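fyi for ur records
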Amino acid sequence: MKKELQNTVAHLKQGNVILYPTDTIWGLGCDPYNQDAVDQIFTIKKREKSKPLIVLVDTLERLRGLVPKIHPHLENILHYNERPLTIIFPSSVRKWSEGITAENGSIAIRIVQNDFCKSIIKATDRPLVSTSANISDDPFPISFDDIHPRIKDAVDYIVSPQLEERRDEVMPSLIARYSTKQKELVFLR
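which gave:
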């Protein structure tokens, strides 16, 4: 895993797009501050920029550095939650590449549970873009073998499929919008 981590980090630092296993499904990833790499993901997926990408973080502490405030109730949910949960926050305290935040300034962030993803984020000291490894509106891939060859050919680096975690059920994360007024999560998926 150490050599795979070094290769992955090197590609991200060069501004490349990676194909990698996450705590949910296989994803396309890059440095969220590299506009060329973010644009490449939109091109690969044939996705409209009006549909922002999500970012992964490794810890609650890193998340705290990206959004203005996290209500203590939400911190408890994030700390104890066992299923991957992507939260759409109303705003961010950082400037991101175009395509990371929505027109209204909101941003989707997930604290990743996959050890390899956490290692990538820690080693780069940056959040990581994540979006499903499929063409927009196509079904998401259940495993590496289900990823369309066009996606595999379009990325700059493919993380070893041996790092894919075997799970009984493979699915995208839950997605919820955090309402600052009601101080609650509104589940969207």
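The longest helix spans residues 2-13. thats all i got for now
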